[in-house]
Amino acid sequence: MTKKRILLFSQPGRPPCDWARAFLSERGVAYELRDVSCDPSAVRELVRYKSRATPTIVVGEEIMIGFDPERLEKMIAE
Predict the structure, then answer these.
(1) Proportion of the chain above pLDDT 70, given as a percent
(2) CATH level 2 (architecture), domain 6-77
(3) Element (H, E) at 58
(4) Which of 24, 25, 34, 58 could staple 42 via S-S, CB 3.0–4.6 A?
């Protein structure tokens, strides 16, 4: 499994964000959660990744906007 840094930009009350968190947790994948609903620095960081949507998942240098479980599986397996 990957040793790359994984960032999850998320906010409460959004099912796709919940799915992404559950997906990573169920696989025992360590990730850093950035809650854009209460952390202005997380919002600024998210925009630097050319996104304004949640979830946005960053694995190493690869960025996924939205939640695609098949793609995320490949991203964390590399």
Answers:
(1) 97
(2) 3-Layer(aba) Sandwich (3.40)
(3) strand 56-59
(4) 34
pTM greater than 0.90:
yes
Which secondary structure element, helix H or strand E, spans residue 45, and what is its range?
Answer: helix 40-48
8: phi then psi, degrees, rounded to nearest 5: -125, 110
Q: Which residues pair with 65 in a beta bridge?
A: 56
Main-chain dihedrals φ then ψ at residue 14, nearest 5 degrees: -115, 110
For residues 12 and 54, give the distance between their C-alpha atoms in angstroms, rounded to a whole number.
10
* Average pLDDT rounded to a whole number, residues 49-76: 96
Q: Which residue in this structure is represented by tokens 């609903």?
A: 37
Average pLDDT over all residues of the chain: 95
